[in-house]
C-alpha cells in the first residue's frame, strides 16, 4: 500500500469494544493501518498496538488505512480459522456508512461490477469484466445539497470494493485520495467511509455477536 505521509493517530491509542479469551473487537480510527506493511515506518498499526498488550492477537480481516470502524481479531488459532471461514463464506454481516459526491436518482440499489487490480497503477483497483465478482447494496440515508450519506452493505470483500463501486456509479466517496478528483479529495479532511457494524458468530460459544460504532461524520 502506498503511503507517502503516514502519521497514525495516537488518541485514542486503542478503542477496545469487546474482549474475551478468543476475540478482541476494536473501533479502528481513520489513518491507522490494520496490519504492518513492508516499510519499517508502517510498523505502528492496529495489530501491533494490540500485540503490545495481547501477544496472542491475530489478524482476521482488514480495513483500509483511511477507513474507520469495527474490526475483530482472534486470540488463538482455532478462533482465527473459524472467523476467517465466516468471512470467506460470507457468513458475516458488514454495514458501512459513507458520504459521497452528488445526488442519487434512486433511493436504493445493487451494484454488481467485477473488480480487478489496475496493473498500470498499483495498488489501485478498477472495474473489469476480467475481474472477480463484486456486489454492493446501497441505500440513501440523507440527502445534502451536494452530497449524500449512504448505507453500504458489501456482499463480497474485494480490495477497495466500496471506493471503486461508488466511483463507478458516479458518486466517489468524499476525501478519497486514491480515486477522487481534486474537488472530491478536498471536500473532506479524511475518507468519509466508516465500518459502522459487524455481525458474526462467536468462534467458541456459537453466540451471535453484533457490534456497532456510530460514524464520525
Give descriptors for this structure:
globular, Pseudouridine synthase, 4 helices, two-stranded antiparallel sheet, alpha+beta, rRNA processing, 10-stranded mixed β-sheet, 217 residues
Write up what this structure looks like:
There is one protein chain. The protein is α+β, with helices and mostly antiparallel strands and 217 residues long. It has a domain at 95-193: Pseudouridine synthase (2-Layer Sandwich), CATH 3.30.2350.10. It is built from 4 helices and 12 strands, in the order ββαββαββββββααββ. The strands form 2 sheets. Strands 1, 2, 3, 4, 5, 6, 9, 10, 11 and 12 form a 10-stranded mixed β-sheet that branches. The protein has a two-stranded antiparallel ribbon with strand order 7-8. A hairpin with a 3-residue loop joins β9 and β10.
Determine the strand fraction and express it as a percent band: 25-35%
- Overall SS class: alpha+beta
Mean pLDDT: 96
CATH class of the domain at 95-193: Alpha Beta
Helix % is 10-25%
User: So how many helices?
Assistant: 4
H and E string: EEHEEHEEEEEEHHEE
Produce a short descriptive summary.
This protein is 15% helix and 32% strand. It has helices at residues 46-53, 77-88, 161-168, 182-186, and strands at 16-19, 23-28, 58-59, 68-74, 93-101, 108-112, 115-117, 125-127, 135-143, 147-154, 193-201, 208-212. It is an enzyme of class 5 (isomerase).
